[in-house]
Amino acid sequence: MTDHYIEDKTNKVEVNVEGMDGKVNFDDLKSGGFIKQKQKDLFTVRLRCPGGRLTTDKLVEISKIAKKYSKEGVIHLSYRQSLEILYVDYNDFSAIVADLEAIGQKVASCGPRVRVPTACGGCEYNPNGLSDTQGLAKMVDDKFFGTPTPHKFKTCFSGCPIDCSRTKEMDLGFQGVVDPKWVEPLCTGCTICEQACKEGAIVADPETGQPIFDREKCIFCGDCIRACPTEAWVPLRHGQTVRVGGKHGRHPMEAIEVCTFLPEERIAAVIEKSIEWYNTHGNRYERIGSALQRVGVKSYMDFMGDLLDDSIKSTGELTD
Amino acid sequence: MSDIKADEELDLRGVVCPINFVKTKLKLESMAEGTVLELVLDSGEPIQNVPKSLKDEGHKIVEVKREGDYFRLKVER
Lengths: 320, 77
Prior knowledge:
The complex is a heterodimer of chains A (about 325) and B (about 80). Chain A is of the alpha+beta class. Chain A contains nine helices and eleven strands. In chain B, β3 (about 60-65) and β4 form a beta hairpin. Chain B has helices spanning about 20-30, 45-55, and strands at about 10, 35-40, 60-65, 70-75. Chain B is globular. Chain B is built from two helices and four strands; from the N terminus they run βαβαββ. In chain B, strands 1-2-4-3 form a four-stranded mixed beta sheet, with helices on one face. The chains are: A alpha+beta (about 325), B alpha+beta (about 80). The interface of A and B includes residues 190, 196, 209, 223 and 230 of A.
């Protein structure tokens, strides 16, 4: 029989599991994360590492397990921040899963389902970070990992508009943003904000040095807020820019921005509802981006409704 | 903007990031609490980055003056 859960194009990778009875728990394979290698009987075991973060203790334990089961003694860092133990014999599946389970490490997924979220360092230690990407990746992984979808469904979290996690290439990506607000009485006209703004959204008045702000050019990175020596630039609100329908691969597509300042507490609801739309409208082996092109973005936006409404648009006035 | 007296000066023109910040930090650490360091920073990356980092570390920038292609900053230890 053929396992349709091993690797993405499973119909092309025929894995004969006959004769494996008693050696392999078929449920282990079904959970995904076992990828057929060119070499006979050997598989790559992909681990579940949301946001690419591991404790040093766990890394040491994983290393021991990899040493025990990898025929070549190697690990590969996947493009989605997970550790992959290479050259594992399928006869060892049950044993390696049990060993990993014992240290609290789960195997990741393949195939048509929600994948492990990726994330940058975020605001915990990156000076540019505007949101807790690691915490969000973990939350989303706990809630949505493995949810079946028509094709693979990749999510990511970037802490700021530098977008290291590449929300523009994700099925659904979230990027931290901050809306800056200038407080005139605190401004000394030093012009550092003009220098700090890499987007040309702030031009210093030649007379007073005070900023002339062009919100259309602002990408909401918060450089002005961080650079201002007198706290004359303050955060009006924080949020998440939401992008949907991106992908890389053979035919890359750029995601479309569907919300600029999503309140963080709505992230889970947005993911849940997006999956619901995708499961309703997406054809088998069709990414959400292609489904959006075929069905129309309007269908998605209508379905999402108020969830993506961030219309407490900055009026230039402080709300509190 | 009234002139604030600087106790020490550090000319960082031509010094790249993040070396300029590290030099500033070392200098500040050698100074007494409440004293003022005058910095000269190039425009571009140095002026984009150094003030942010100084704020992150809890220092106060008390005066900024632009002089052509560079900036003169006064930082309170």
